[in-house]
Amino acid sequence: MKIEGRSYRTIMATDAGTVRVIDQSRLPFEFAFRELATAADAARAIRDMVVRGAPLIGATAAYGLALAVREDPSDARIEEAARLLCATRPTAHNLAWALATLRTALAGVPPASRPDIAWREAARICDADVAQCRAIGEHGLSILKELWRRCARPLNVLTHCNAGWLACVDWGTALAPVYRAHDEGVPLHVWVDETRPRNQGASLTAFELAAHGVRHTVIADNLGGHLMQTGRVDVVIFGADRVSANGDVCNKVGSYLKALAAHDNGIPCYAALPESTIDWTLQSGAQIPIEERAARELTHITGLGPTGTLETVQVVPSSSPALNLAFDVTPARLLSGLVTERGVCAASRTGLLGLYPERRAAS
Amino acid sequence: MKIEGRSYRTIMATDAGTVRVIDQSRLPFEFAFRELATAADAARAIRDMVVRGAPLIGATAAYGLALAVREDPSDARIEEAARLLCATRPTAHNLAWALATLRTALAGVPPASRPDIAWREAARICDADVAQCRAIGEHGLSILKELWRRCARPLNVLTHCNAGWLACVDWGTALAPVYRAHDEGVPLHVWVDETRPRNQGASLTAFELAAHGVRHTVIADNLGGHLMQTGRVDVVIFGADRVSANGDVCNKVGSYLKALAAHDNGIPCYAALPESTIDWTLQSGAQIPIEERAARELTHITGLGPTGTLETVQVVPSSSPALNLAFDVTPARLLSGLVTERGVCAASRTGLLGLYPERRAAS
Lengths: 363, 363
Prior knowledge:
The structure is a homodimer of 363-residue chains. Chain A is of the alpha/beta class. Chain A folds into 2 domains: 2-128, translation initiation factor eif-2b, domain 1 (Four Helix Bundle (Hemerythrin (Met), subunit A)), CATH 1.20.120.420; 139-359, Rossmann fold, CATH 3.40.50. Helix content of chain A is 38%, strand content 19%. The longest helix of chain A has 37 residues, at 114-150. In chain A, 56% of the residues are buried.
């Protein structure tokens, strides 16, 4: 995507053999990069949410493992680095998927050849993510176009958290259809859930949409239900961190509440994701581990202070504990469908296997 | 209620003939008072949310009108002051109710006698609110005790926004049963929705519960659904700003989402309110005006800065518009009941008329 006319991906290999990522912890007020030179750098970037979004977490983990392999291509080092990277965040399936993909590519390869193969495989994972997100955009575009044909006004899309290009390598999952529709001239407007406690909607989705020129309005996470009750939302679309084989969608905490409201008001609600987000080993979303993050992410908020620098203020009194669980599970029954790189399917085992028939034997 | 062992009401007449209110815009980090000497002071305090909470808005408006009457007891001045006060906030029914109650008490009274009567009537409204909230506490206590009998562990209550003593003159509506249960030795724990965008949960409910020694945990508004799905919520209880004659409940934005989640998980969900919150003239919640407040309440957040003073930071980029609607309507069908000073009833016309039979003719 473009920022002030210049194209970027969220993660890029440099000529110096390092990996450069957009530092998302400083957005929307600072657009800066961070260099990752080691697997530990990559692990820290994932854990501290310098990079975030399930597909981008996977891409960063792949490059992190490739950085480790370059230092030491031994089996022991690969094992250790993979374990370090995998432990950074428990919910997003793309993380384990990317590490497994890299390790499969390295299996049986002599150590001397491993660094090049690992690096190329990480790059391939990134390129594949871009292609998949572009395909998700195409399939989602059909849905948005069809919905727009039925409204006599710009289409109102509601999204939760950030599942745009910043969450991926490029394009995004939930926002890919929005960008494609905008570029095709479909008039639309996006309701952007602020997405507490880390404000990825207010800070990342709003930034992305503004940079691309897409009309949008930031709202409190609390407002979406009322907007749906009063006819101001035509479709809800969000991303996913892990999808179980039955079509339950684990995504940023609060997605479930929006899906409930969409269902209660007869509004279509979709999750958009590449296959790397699907955990075929889980029979239901109840089995997905839900990450608990530091309470401080809720009790303190960072923003632009009056002097123009980033400042942090405390909003919960120290006498009160806080709990910060980062994800929830939207049951498949509340979803109108899943938008993947292969097309749109029902959120169900049958729906998913229709798009991924090669998984029939495994499941 | 007590703060560090000393009893307070949120609004108190002073010997100097002014009205002293707790400045809720500075909580939880500063416990300070503000003096209201004129109707304009009272109007400003309501509009700027120095005082908030439907019952307290009503009490403040009553004293505001009494302050105006003392300056000038003419019909014209009463009319003008009532209009000023009534326009401060559109949603809470208690505001119009309190002003109408005061005007009824003054009707036909010679101007010279009006100041005393108005002052006494405002004091009576405050005392009545305290008694009603205490009664709400008793009726709600029965519900909590019964639910607790069925759990083998402390009862988990989830509440949204602040409907505690800070929202009323004393005791609170939704929190009155919690305080009563705590005082009776029912072990309980409260999940406190932070309640964006103004954070009344994090700043007021957390402060209240900590001051009273009630166990609680602050959570993002997004988390309640997940907690309900995973069995960690036994009952949801929130207040109300206006209830229509059919039992629809207008309350702080986001209440509807929690009611949906409670309904989806078979968890009881109650609204607690005194009769002054019921608008018998409205047939459905869809007719309730929803206040739009400044976008800045969403785009900027005030908290305790690193130097120990209140500071404001910007969290939404200036390039993105924001919409801040302050209330939503929970349809009666999602509620297990309404807890009023007269008892608990079904959220329905029949249920309400059962408790308030004198309204049968009017409705």
